[in-house]
Amino acid sequence: MIFSYVLRRLIILAVSILVASAVLFLLLRLLPGDPANALVSIGADPEQIEAARRQVGSDLPLPQQFIQFAGGLMRFDFGNSFISRTPVLPEIGARLSVTVPLTLGAFLLAVVLAVPLGIIAAVRKARWYGGLIAVVSQLGIAVPVFWIGILLVTLFAVQLRLLPSGGFPARGWQRPEAAITALILPIVTVALVMAASLIRYVRAATLDVLGSDYLRTARALGASFSEALVRHGIRNGAVPVISILGIELASTLLGAVVVERVFSLPGLGSMLLLGIEQRDYPTVQAVLFISTLLVLLVGFAADILQRLVDPRLRGVIGSRP
Amino acid sequence: MSDLVSLPATTRTRGPLPRALLVGLFIVGLQLVIALMTLVWTPYDPSALAGQRLEAPSLIHLAGTDRLGRDLFTLIMIGARIALTVGCGAILIGGLIGVTIGLAAAFAARTLDDVFAAGLDILIAFPTLLIAMLIVASSDGASLWTATLAIGVANSAIVARLTRILGKRVLALDYITAARISGSSWLSIVFRHVLPNIWPTLMVNLALQFGLAVIAEASLSYLGLGTPPPNASWGRLLQEAQATVQTAPLGAIAPGLALVALVIGINLLADGLRDLSDPARRSA
């Protein structure tokens, strides 16, 4: 059963990647501005422009361009940067060594913060701290991630001088302690915002569990409150939360992109922004494709995980209402 | 005549307006008044150098001055106008596209609807900000309009998915079948039966999207992809203030407070609207 589900989900994943690359292609090619413009200086004569278009491939008919484009993506061949003239892929690899630890670190910290706090907020709803957690998490979703970053820099880097205000060691992970120190504030920044929205889901899921019949039955059969919650509540409450986690991890990645700017980190996000500024199409499309791919893969993994946790879903394909 | 006297009792059973709605209305209303006021009057000319650089707050400059000597309070007031303009525009664009696609999907035949649903799921997998960046990147330079369009288009997928689900639920009801049998056109079904039924839920969602649009606009501006100066948005003010946070911390705090206040106000408004449309949820 689970095998056939994985297979069908894989097909959906493949189609999604194809559609994503088509959307990417259309947005980048059909909107005004020829990618070849980035190669020639202002006031270039028509022959130079024509040569640049041939080099970029924008003189070909659109369907042919798309086949070339999609073929390149499938082989992870993103071409050379217009600016540095070197292949884009190794650069992306180097950038991921900043963005991936930042994203995963922030995500883990957010989960570690949000799950217990969300459960406490639900179980101790009537106490002042239960209410406080709920209110703070409501406020948290109204705060842009970059502003939290600026505030944390002001407090911990400028006022208290405990941590660096930004930057990343030039030799990267060869000096692990410097790299980790550089990532502490960015990770906390993204994690705080993620935790705020996650707490709301955990709290809602726990409230559902608390009001359920099976929990009351377990209590009636003599289980203590915490025993009933751990044995029956966690597995049931985890299902809606896991489906959210996939989306949350994706938005953590996006938060990382913005926060990299706050802390001047050389990650995927700053690469994308630089690419946009310089009109470096190969870089922009490669970064966008890789990040979309990561988002889709995370969604795939979250769906599979959800099936494994909840046996009731295993027989049903596509639980769309 | 005595019957008429008891009439207000029926309205009283609705209960008082939700407190969240009133607080939300107050905050959003205040910012709206400020935004409208900047069209005719601001304390200082936003591009004039009204004082020394990075002045501390005083009675003359309520929030101090920025690194060029412009009055920060004036700039924050104008920021409210930018935020509300982009928010309204994005909701209008996202709502129009989203509701149209969602209703089309809800009405479409089974296989076509599956294609719609899968397509929307994929579009939603693209994070809003990435779509916005993509649109800004492929148009010629960032502006108020590209930011609005980008955020609106990015939001439309979420609105479309919700409209589709809500629409399908209504379309499955018996009175729709009755309307169809009695010969109503699909257009009249949409406007007389479907839209009025899904509107309350849709409106709450659009209000929440409004808050997210304000945050998205600030993020784009912070990244340098939003409204160009001199009509500075809050995101841009924060980005500029970050460099001088050591000497003038208020510049990095005040615009953020204005932004967070607006988003909280909008969220409270959305909560209040939901309570109003669904009294059963009031206790939650």
How would you describe the overall organization of this protein?
The complex is a heterodimer of chains A (321) and B (284). With 321 residues, chain A is an all-alpha fold. Chain A has one domain: MetI-like (MetI-like fold), CATH 1.10.3720.10. Chain A contains 11 helices and no strands. In chain A, α1 runs antiparallel to α11, α4 runs antiparallel to α5 and α7 crosses α9. Chain A starts with a helix and ends in a 12-residue tail after the last helix. Chain B is mainly α. Chain B has a single domain, classed as Orthogonal Bundle (MetI-like fold). Chain B is 70% helix and 0% strand. Chain B is built from 11 helices and no strands. In chain B, α4 runs parallel beside α7, α4 runs antiparallel to α9 and α7 runs antiparallel to α9. The two termini of chain B are 40 Å apart. Classes of the chains: A mainly alpha (321), B mainly alpha (284). Chains A and B meet through α1, α6, α9, α10 and α11 of A and α5, α6, α7, α9 and α10 of B.
Summarize the structure.
Chain A has 321 residues and is an all-alpha fold.
Helices and strands in order, then pairings?
The complex is a heterodimer of chains A (321) and B (284).
Chain A: H1 2-30, H2 46-56, H3 62-74, H4 88-123, H5 128-140, H6 145-159, H7 176-210, H8 213-220, H9 225-262, H10 268-277, H11 281-309
Helix pairs in contact in A: 1-3, 1-11, 4-5, 4-7, 4-9, 5-7, 6-7, 6-9, 7-9, 8-9, 9-11, 10-11
Chain B: H1 2-5, H2 8-12, H3 19-40, H4 72-107, H5 110-125, H6 128-138, H7 144-171, H8 174-181, H9 186-222, H10 234-242, H11 254-277
Helix pairs in contact in B: 3-4, 3-11, 4-5, 4-7, 4-9, 4-11, 5-7, 6-7, 7-9, 9-10, 9-11, 10-11
